[in-house]
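note to self — DONT lose this again. spent like an hour looking for the file last time. sequence + predicted structure for the chain T wanted, 219 res
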Amino acid sequence: MKISRRSLWLIVLVIPLLWLLWPKGGHEGNEAQGIPLRKGATSHELMDQASQAAGTSGKNDKTSSRRGQGKSNLSSTSPSSAEVDDILLDENITDDQAAQKLREIAADASFPLPQREEAMHHGLNLQPSAFGDFAEAQPDLPVELALPLLQSMINFNESPKDQIRTYLALKDHADPEIAEQALEMLAFMVEDDAREKTPEQWEQMAREKLRKMEEEKEE
């Protein structure tokens, strides 16, 4: 069968066009989506890379939940407390109630210090206000508990009252770095950025500010 010159030209034009439009699979398709591929990667590794690029690496909403983790996220070597895990996994209590229970463990000297530290970390994560007067009730607070408490309260701007109470309680802590940082935060709370006043004046001003906050709350 003879092919006309016109038909021949159409074939010449259509074949490159089909080549360009034809969907590319395999590695080229992945590279086109911005997924870096490693030479010699197994199929499982390629699937992992693809899922990570798509934002679906196996993590679900529960992993970001404050209560859903159960286990301590302090470190892989920290012992996990069954009492702490039971509280975190109890769906019949609110976050506030869980934080209060965790506070009780953190304050209980009969528990090993690492477990008290674990309870405090999780409790502060759930509800920092549950620990607003914790340092006042624990005058000889170990560094392992005082440090995370101080750091958490520095970021707890929602409650200046809890911040001031914590700073006042920790300004004389046995650890000089904790005491110094607590004093610095007191100066910040009374807006003495130039550090023109003495630590005693910071304390006096902070207590006065705290008193006014409590009066306003009563009204």
